[in-house]
Write a structure and sequence with these properties.
Elements lengths: L3 H13 L6 H17 L7 H28 L1
């Protein structure tokens, strides 16, 4: 059975790339899903989706923070 939170993490991560406000939700959902999948001992699937969402959320968060930092320093 596939973990629904893994799909949610991937969708939020992809949405976080253009809209950074979704980044924390993608990170939280991806980490939570990976933990649930690991604890299920093979019963749940979706590791790739959860990892993709987590990584996309982290990339979006770092990009957003660098952009805000640049904006603060440049003005």
């Amino acid at each position: 059975m596939r973990d629904r939170a893994a799909t949610r993490a991937l969708v939020l991560g992809l949405l976080a790339l253009p809209f950074g406000v979704f980044a924390p939700f993608a990170i939280f959902s991806g980490a939570r899903s990976l933990r649930r999948i690991r604890d299920s001992r093979g019963e749940l699937r979706g590791t790739a989706s959860a990892t993709g969402g987590l990584i996309a959320g982290l990339v979006a968060l770092v990009t957003m923070l660098v952009g805000i930092g640049y904006w603060l320093l440049a003005s």
